[in-house]
Amino acid sequence: MKKICPVPPHAQLVVDDRLLFLGDPASIGLLARFKGLASYAQRQGLNADELTEVLILPDSPLCGLRLKESDFRAKFDAAVVAIRRNGEALSGVIGEQILCGGDFLVLATGKDFLGRANLTKNFMIIRGAKPAATIKPLTEWLMIGGFLLAITLSALGWVSLFKSMVCYLSILLLSGTLTLNELRRRFPLGLWLIVMSALALAKAMETSGLMGVVTYLVKVHLEGASPHWALVGMLVATWMVTEIITNNATAAMMLPLALALAQGLGVSPLPFAMAVAFGASCSFVNPYAYQTNLMALNAGEYRLVDFLRLGLPLALLYLAVVAAFVPLFFPFLPG
Q: Of 5, 87, 173, 327, whose CB count within 10 A is highest?
């Protein structure tokens, strides 16, 4: 059984000793100055000279897994050399640490790190290696010209926009200008799924009769009510939901209800749809509900009470401005 204990200043180090360090991950590069020390990354043939710092996203499949059980090296061609979590002092073997959303990881990366298609599903790269692709001037002009040609053919009515764009994308893939890995990494698949889910949910509510039930209840209980107050209610409800789950999921869930509410009141659905769009982005109180909040929480070493103290007044001000200006730009016209 391996024994882990503090190292006193007078201790004598011998060959094959394994040292665990507690401190600022940003200073880990200083260890390379000591002759005779070899990091885990160096033994695995990874690049330990230029470290990459990433943030684990809240919905990453890595959350809840022990580092040694996550098969990290095989998935990302990288090794974790340090972990930082909310300013806490983590103790124990790094492989035994349970990964959580919002953790900052310092990685020593391999050559294939940037080519992995699962990076954006798990991490936000803070500093270090960045996915970058240089495009030759001729290739750039061909890409722009192909895009304009596809739009022109569609505008002239010679071919549909969908077909022209599919052909354009196929040419890019076949010519090697665009790779499948890059397409998977850059294509907003999650956003498309959220939009499709919202439309499917709205259609299911309509065909099942649930939309009619909601519309009937709105007509009965909110007859003669001000659409403006109904808009405020939808805005506040959306805000409360988005503080618990992600903004995209909130929009998908609340949009069908907003459409049913507008239909029941007999007004245009556009202001209610805008209320959902703005309300779903009003995530200032819960740092774990949005990626940038997590970045601020860890980088600034804030606490949850800091977000509540500053985020709640900001959220209320944001909601008041949205409730005042949405009806001005998107009037409650008869539906």
A: 327
Spatial neighbors of 86 by CB under 8 A, at least 6 apart, are 102, 297, 298, 301
- pLDDT, tens digit, 9 for 90 and up, residues 205-235: 667 777 677 666 766 666 667 888 888 888 9
**What strands, in cross-sheet order, belong to the sheet with 123-127?**
78-84, 104-109, 47-56, 123-127
State the amino acid at position 44 in one-letter form. Answer: Q
Q: What is the pLDDT of residue 46?
A: 54
CB atoms within 10 A of CB 14: 6
131 CB-side CA count, 13 A: 19
- Non-local CB neighbours of 140 within 8 Å, separated by 6+ positions: none
Token digits for 165?
């764009």
CA 162-167-173 angle, to 5 degrees, is: 125
What's the token pair of residue 175? 């010519």
What SS3 class is residue 110?
A: coil
Which residue did the predictor score with more confidence, 286 or 313? 313
Give phi and psi for 246, each to the nearest 5: -70, 160
Predicted model pTM: 0.50
Q: Which long-range contacts (CB under 8 A, 24 or more apart) does 303-309 make?
A: none
| Residues belonging to the chain | 335
235 and 323 in contact (C-beta within 8 Å)? yes
Alpha helices of 227-303 — where are they, by DSSP H? 227-242, 247-265, 270-279, 291-299
Give the separation between CA 269 and CA 98, rounded to whole angstroms. Answer: 45
Closest by CA position to 320, among listed 252, 228, 192, 226: 228
The DSSP call for residue 301 is T
The answer to whether residues 95 and 66 touch, using CB atoms and an 8 Å cutoff, is yes
The upper half-sphere exposure of residue 322, i.e. CA atoms within 13 Å in the direction of its Cβ, equals 26
The encoded tokens of residue 112 equal: 């294939």
Q: How many CB atoms lie within 10 A of CB 153?
A: 17
